[in-house]
């Protein structure tokens, strides 16, 4: 009896021509999804070209993860592997302060968006991660472009930065790294500009004497 | 010569049976349809409080701000296919109206059986918001969009039709491949080999609904969990395709979703994935939706 029930619910196949078209579409679709998904870690040249070539299909229908849109945008949640212990996975915070001194004092967290673990907070983190990555890659104009709207509601702010919070997976070296993006806020009448404050670089060269040694 | 012709014929027949003639495809699809409707309501509701803040006229990623950024970054070519009518909507009221309509479509998709138009409309509604959420969207949009997209291929009623069979097969393949890719890409990082992957997942405690760090700090706990997560992600998608192991694989995959949802706080993503896993129909004893249901009995 169960077999009869199953047989009665079996659909008829489409006409051969339709089946051929659908078959071709399925094969192409599956191949593209396979290529796009397996390109998440690091795409090869061929993968990159195929994905770019089929962008009208893959991107329009949101079938592939963001193709490293801003190199930077591989933030938490976009990649399948969920965690790799990288800087992008640290919690990011936007901070401002009402003075332009370079000290560590006086920074205040910008109004926090959303409860911990909420979708709202996740969106904020992805956005701040993008700014941090742009800042770290010295894409100052782009980082500034994204940061400006975030400080619009704080007319007293004179400095802004995006920091990464230490966690159980970070070591003392990583915790000591400077904020990935710090900028001074210049206000001239109605215009607001951000000027990147250069971060001190960690290096192997001696830093006490700037004069070249003979 | 004759043997090869017979083999080709058998392969074609097998392919046709597998893709177009799956018995009882509509039952799991109906369950998934209801599940994804709930996820879609959750998805739209999760944007309610901040959609104006991000996408409104004065928003952080307003159309103008985004266009300037993309121009400066020379990224227009890369993202020009992320099409969405929401680029022309900047009123917070209209954006919230969009969310409300999306929630109404989600509810309607679960109850309307006369036409697949509602399902198509819901898919487009989610897709457009995902495409507009440049720099904000993540994996939850990805699974929701392809899940709703495949469902839109199937007829809305319960009559057997080859398009329902195709939709079911595409969903099964896509979901199992996604879980497998998750496991395989995890192997690209040492943390999923040395047993600390789970700790990396729970480490950003300020972004997690539940702080698991202390509970998982014993090495044997987090190492065992890490290895289990990787093994299930790689093995379960294979076992899902065999009738003998499907139930076990489905339970393992569901548990995998639950554990990762709890640890990563990516609730919507893993809940949607768990809903999509129902396409393997393990919960209904009379349903044969795996690879074996394509074979003639």
Walk me through what this model shows:
- The complex is a heterodimer of chains A (about 210) and B (about 300).
- By secondary structure, chain A is an alpha+beta fold.
- In chain A, about 35% of the residues lie in helices and about 15% in strands.
- Chain A contains seven helices and five strands.
- In chain A, a hairpin with a 2-residue loop joins strand 4 and strand 5 (about 190-195).
- Chain B has one domain (about 20-295).
- Chain B is mostly helical.
- Chain B has helices at about 1-20, 25-45, 50-55, 65-75, 75-80, 90-110, 115-130, 140-155, 160-185, 195-200, 220-240, 245-265, 265-275.
- In chain B, helix 2 packs antiparallel against helix 8 and helix 11 packs across helix 12.
In short:
The complex is a heterodimer of chains A (214) and B (297). By secondary structure, chain A is an alpha+beta fold. Helices cover 34% and strands 13% of the residues of chain A.
């Amino acid at each position: 009896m169960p077999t009869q029930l199953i047989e009665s619910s079996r659909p008829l196949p489409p006409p051969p021509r339709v089946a051929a078209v659908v078959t071709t579409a399925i094969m192409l679709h599956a191949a593209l999804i396979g290529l796009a998904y397996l390109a998440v870690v690091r795409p090869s040249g061929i993968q990159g070209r195929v994905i770019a070539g089929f962008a009208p299909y893959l991107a329009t229908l949101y079938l592939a993860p963001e193709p490293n849109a801003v190199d930077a945008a591989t933030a938490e949640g976009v990649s399948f592997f969920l965690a790799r212990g990288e800087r992008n996975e640290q919690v990011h915070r936007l901070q401002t302060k009402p003075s332009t001194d370079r000290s560590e004092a006086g920074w205040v967290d910008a109004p926090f968006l959303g409860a911990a673990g909420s979708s709202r907070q996740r969106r904020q983190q992805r956005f701040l991660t993008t700014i941090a990555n742009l800042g770290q890659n010295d894409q100052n104009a782009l980082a500034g472009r994204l940061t400006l709207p975030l400080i619009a509601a704080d007319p007293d702010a004179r400095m802004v930065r995006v920091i990464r919070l230490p966690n159980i997976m970070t070591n003392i070296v990583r915790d000591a790294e400077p904020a990935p993006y710090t900028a001074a806020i210049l206000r001239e009448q109605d215009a607001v500009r951000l000027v990147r404050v250069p971060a001190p670089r960690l290096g192997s060269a001696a830093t006490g004497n700037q004069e070249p040694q003979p | 010569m004759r043997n090869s012709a017979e083999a080709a014929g058998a392969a074609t027949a097998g392919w046709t049976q597998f893709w177009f003639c799956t018995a009882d495809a509509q039952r799991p699809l109906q369950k998934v349809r209801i599940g994804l409707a709930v996820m879609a309501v959750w998805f739209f509701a999760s944007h309610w409080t901040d959609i104006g803040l991000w996408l409104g006229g004065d928003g952080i990623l307003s159309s103008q701000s985004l266009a300037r950024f993309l121009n400066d970054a020379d990224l227009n070519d890369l993202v020009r296919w992320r099409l969405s009518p929401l680029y022309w909507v900047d009123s917070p009221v209209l954006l919230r109206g969009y969310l409300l309509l999306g929630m109404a479509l989600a509810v309607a998709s679960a109850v309307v059986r006369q036409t697949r138009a509602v399902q198509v409309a819901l898919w487009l509604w989610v897709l457009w918001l995902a495409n507009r959420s440049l720099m904000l969207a993540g994996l939850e949009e990805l699974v929701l969009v392809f899940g709703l997209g495949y469902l839109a291929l199937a007829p809305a009623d319960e009559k057997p039709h080859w398009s329902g069979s195709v939709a079911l097969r595409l969903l099964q393949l896509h979901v199992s491949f996604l879980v497998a890719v998750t496991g395989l890409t995890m192997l690209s990082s040492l943390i999923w080999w040395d047993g600390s992957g789970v700790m990396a997942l729970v480490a950003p405690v300020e972004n997690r609904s539940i702080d698991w760090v202390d509970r998982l700090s014993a090495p044997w706990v987090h190492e065992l969990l890490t290895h289990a997560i990787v093994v299930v992600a790689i093995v379960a998608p294979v076992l899902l395709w065999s009738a003998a192991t499907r139930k076990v694989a489905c339970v393992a995959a569901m548990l995998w979703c639950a554990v990762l949802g709890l640890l990563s706080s990516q609730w919507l993503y893993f809940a949607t994935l768990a809903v999509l896993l129902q396409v393997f129909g393990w919960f209904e004893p009379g349903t044969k939706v795996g690879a074996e249901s394509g074979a003639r009995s």
